[in-house]
């Protein structure tokens, strides 16, 4: 369900919450692509809720336009919203979602990780640099060089397509040199391979393997 949360600077934003099935084993904040809090991301939330994770998806475009969800073929609008977003303010919104999952009155408090896709994948790396999180999963994260120069403080696992022109091989090699502890898996696929709502990009086999690896990683870092 959609609820309102408040960042540390007083900004209020919408956040989709998917309760864990059974006893919660950890928390997971999912960071959006450039299209907003889409139904596809909510399906990812349900996947991990079924594994026992309390899940939240903060609406990172709310500082510009409340409730912004952009069609997958409207790249111009989506890119404009992404370019207008302040990554530092996005960290405040992500941290608010992390806190909302961790501070639920449970003892002990849930350990919370993040998982980001595309633009959100790059933000997941920044979250691992700046926020108190258990770990980060990066699905074909973009704009990675923007985050060079700062070490990651939490474990990071990345999933990238071998033919992804958004994060080509030279950028990924530079990222691995920048963060030697980054665990990277490559798939014979392109960008957005894990989005089943984008059939030209989706690779079901790569998606299944990547989510299996992600689930094992999340269980390890939040356990």
Describe this structure in words.
Helix content is 35%, strand content 20%. α5 (169-178) links the parallel β7 (156-161) and β8 (183-187). The mean pLDDT is 97. The chain has a single domain (2-222), classed as Rossmann fold, CATH 3.40.50. The chain is globular. By secondary structure, it is α/β, with parallel strands linked by helices. Keywords: Hydrolase. This is Dienelactone hydrolase family protein. Residues 21-220 form the Dienelactone hydrolase domain.
Please name the CATH architecture. Answer: 3-Layer(aba) Sandwich
What is the first-to-last residue Cα distance? Answer: 25 Å
Number of helices, where a helix is a run of at least 4 consecutive DSSP H or I residues? 6
How many domains make up the coordinates? 1
Radius of gyration: 16 Å
Tell me the fraction of residues in β-strands, as a range. Answer: 15-25%
* Sheet with the most strands: spatial strand order: 1-2-4-3-5-6-7-8
Q: What is the class in the CATH system?
A: Alpha Beta
The CATH superfamily turns out to be Alpha/Beta hydrolase fold, catalytic domain
Q: Secondary-structure element sequence?
A: EEEHEHHEHEEHEH
Number of strands: 8
- Poorly predicted runs: none
Structural class: alpha/beta
Overall morphology: globular
Main sheet summary: 8 strands, mixed
Overall mean pLDDT stands at 97
Helix percent band: 25-40%
Could you please say which CATH topology applies here?
Rossmann fold
Protein name: Dienelactone hydrolase family protein
EC number: 3.1.-.-
GO molecular function, one term: hydrolase activity
Keywords: Hydrolase
């Amino acid at each position: 369900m959609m609820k309102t949360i408040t960042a540390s600077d007083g900004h209020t934003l919408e956040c989709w919450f998917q309760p864990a099935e059974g006893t919660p084993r950890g928390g997971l904040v999912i960071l959006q692509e450039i299209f907003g809090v889409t139904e596809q991301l909510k399906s990812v939330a349900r996947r991990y809720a079924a594994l026992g994770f309390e899940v939240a998806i903060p609406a990172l475009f709310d500082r510009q336009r409340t409730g912004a969800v952009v069609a997958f073929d409207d790249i111009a609008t989506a890119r404009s919203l992404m370019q207008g977003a302040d990554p530092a303010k996005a960290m405040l919104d992500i941290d608010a979602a992390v806190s909302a999952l961790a501070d639920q009155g449970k003892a002990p408090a849930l350990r919370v990780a993040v998982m980001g896709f595309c633009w959100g994948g790059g933000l997941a790396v920044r979250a691992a640099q700046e926020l108190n999180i258990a770990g980060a999963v990066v699905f074909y994260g973009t704009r990675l060089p923007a985050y060079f120069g700062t070490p990651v403080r939490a474990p990071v696992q990345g999933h990238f397509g071998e033919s992804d022109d958004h994060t080509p091989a030279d950028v990924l090699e530079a990222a691995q040199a920048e963060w030697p502890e980054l665990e990277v898996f490559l798939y014979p696929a392109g960008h957005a391979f894990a989005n089943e709502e984008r059939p030209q990009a989706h690779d079901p086999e790569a998606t299944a393997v990547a989510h299996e690896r992600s689930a094992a990683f999340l269980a390890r870092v939040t356990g």
